Amino acid sequence: MPLFRLAHLSDPHLPSPLTLGPAGELVSKRTLSRLAWRRKHRQHDPAVLGQISADITAYAPDHIALTGDLTNFSTQAEFAAARTWLESLGPADRVTVSPGNHDALTADAQADRVAAFGPWFGDGGEAHFPRVRRRGPVALVNLCSAVPTPPLLASGRLGEAQLERLSQALDDLGREGLFRVVLLHHPAGAGVVSRRKALADGPEFREVLRRHGAELVLHGHAHEAVFGVVAGPHGPIPVLGVPSASAPSGTQHAAARWHAIEIEPGEGLRVIARGLEARSGEVGELGRYALPGLSAGIAA
Description:
Shape: globular
CATH class: Alpha Beta
Strand content: 15-25%
Structural class: alpha/beta
Distance between the termini: 8 Å
Number of domains: 1
Order of helices and strands: EHHEHEHEEHEHEEEEEE
């Protein structure tokens, strides 16, 4: 099968427009988030994001996976600005977006988020997740772990209905012999982030993967480079996370990075980490490694 090149980035936290929208949008949890943002906004630099975006464009991937947190307060103005930025990154059929917790800060953001990001969620007009995209030898299985939470929490949840649909989708795609890449914002593995930031139904999600299989899981949220595995029906499934795509060097989190993931079904995959180099401040290769077809659940 031909080589498939997938770019993975996450958590760009795009600059908030000067006008965030109606005053009512800044009540409740958004108010607390604005106060926190005064402390944390220096952890994200639009110039760094520009470097990362340009590097991805130069790589010319077959597809781009973006695992959430495009916005900070999930306001109408932010969604509109994020859509404009997404259009600059690539056409909707070449970019898949999995929503993050900052994209679901309050319940009233749901309609605005769907209107803004809907074309980037997946193919077809389904109103629910998972959204599946078939691209050559690869199937992108896009989940939504982003749900409104009480103040001071950033946890996620997939829910019983989404997990049931995921089980069926993984079975169907496995029978087709496709390389199944699962996308979500919150980490799949236990202990990657604190409990208040974790996937609340993580054990149930991991049980679905254990029973039905996948070849790769990609996430964001932790703002760190993450490599782990979860159990699959035929062996371990690799789980990869990337730092924020807009993080400058010298903050409490890892500097901006993205992964070029080169998939050759039946042969495994190669991961090329690219990001800000400490000395030069430019984007370059940070390392690479190969993974065999660990889950061994698809046809070669």
